[in-house]
Amino acid sequence: MKCSNCDTEYSDPNQTICEYCGSELVKDKEPQSLKTTSKIDQFLTETGLKD
User: Fold this and answer.
1) What is the DSSP string of 1-51?
2) Contact at 8 Å (CB) between 35 and 5?
3) Do residues 8 and 20 touch, judged by C-beta distance below 8 A?
4) From CA 18, how far away is CA 51, in angstroms rounded?
5) N or C: fewer beta carbons within 10 Å in the chain?
6) Can you tell me the distance from the alpha carbon of 45 to that of 25, in angstroms, rounded to the nearest whole number?
7) Within a 10 A sphere around the Cβ of 23, how many other Cβ atoms?
8) Residues ≥6 apart with Cβ < 8 Å to 50
């Protein structure tokens, strides 16, 4: 498993969220270029708290 945001590697197959940045982990080794914001940044933007 690999973090789509900060590229941290995880060997635990049950781990789904990155401990460092909060983004979802992906199973493949290709980086996801579509998702550029972390879950935390996405939440702050959606709730209007980022400004």
Assistant:
1) -EETTT--B---TT--B-TTT-PBEESSSS--SS--S-HHHHHHHHHT---
2) yes
3) yes
4) 24
5) C
6) 21
7) 21
8) 41, 44
